[in-house]
Design goal:
Layout lengths: L2 H18 L3 E2 L4 E5 L4 E11 L6 E11 H11 L11 E4 L12 E3 L5 H22 L3 H9 L5 H14 L3 H14 L6 H21 L2
Antiparallel strand pairs: 1-2, 2-3, 3-4, 4-5, 4-6
């Protein structure tokens, strides 16, 4: 089987099983599942092709997306909001499992594609869904980011906005200032983009406080 054919078979097998588990297929290997009015359970099937004898390696990433938070971030960055990308907080599935390490699923080896897909989706349900449920509210997401969960530069934008949406203006400002301090000596594009976000965020914060 060609690598393209294997990817197509893997994708179809995972999509069918994830639909049975309540996930909606989106573009780009993303799946979502409703948690409440503002939060989506989120799953991304990151894949690498051809690394080992024509195998397809899949790394599932499980997370949650808070729609209002992501919409406000897009507005502050001057971007068009997306309906389901990115996740607000996420983790590679392997790190949620008992071994707590990187754990890919390999398609195209000895086991049939359907068997591997069964194992992958079973792990998503058993280990990924409790993660989604633990982070199923804005308060839980913000508390997790405040504890240090998530990628630092990703959280730098989301933690202040989360606090703002919770009505905690002082914590929002404190989180923003901490992130600004961390990049004070950087001039790369990511740092410049963050400074633009910070300026827009301060204007929004001042409006919310009536300054």
């Amino acid at each position: 089987m060609t690598s393209g054919g294997l990817v197509a078979e893997m994708s179809a097998a995972c999509r069918e099983r994830l639909a049975s588990a309540g996930f909606q297929a989106r573009a780009g290997g993303v799946f979502t599942r409703a948690v409440d009015g503002e939060v989506l359970g989120w799953l991304g099937l990151n894949r690498a092709v051809g690394g080992g004898g024509g195998l397809v390696e899949v790394n599932p990433v499980v997370g949650v997306r808070h729609q209002a938070l992501e919409a406000l971030i897009a507005e502050l960055l001057g971007a068009k909001p997306h309906r389901y990308v990115p996740a607000t907080l996420s983790s590679s599935l392997g790190y949620l499992m008992p071994a707590s390490r990187y754990r890919p699923w390999m398609f195209g080896a000895e086991a049939p594609v359907g068997v591997v897909a069964d194992e992958l989706v079973a792990a998503v349900v058993e280990y990924g869904m409790p993660y989604v449920q633990r982070h199923g509210s804005l308060t839980a997401i913000v508390e997790a980011m405040a504890r240090g969960e998530g990628v630092r530069e990703f959280v730098a934008v989301r933690l202040p906005v989360g606090y703002l949406l919770l009505g905690e203006a002082q914590r929002a400002l404190g989180a923003l200032e901490a992130s600004e301090s961390a990049i004070a000596h950087r001039q790369d594009l990511a740092a410049q983009r963050f400074r633009g976000f910070a300026a827009a965020f301060r204007r929004r914060l001042n409006v919310s406080r009536g300054d």
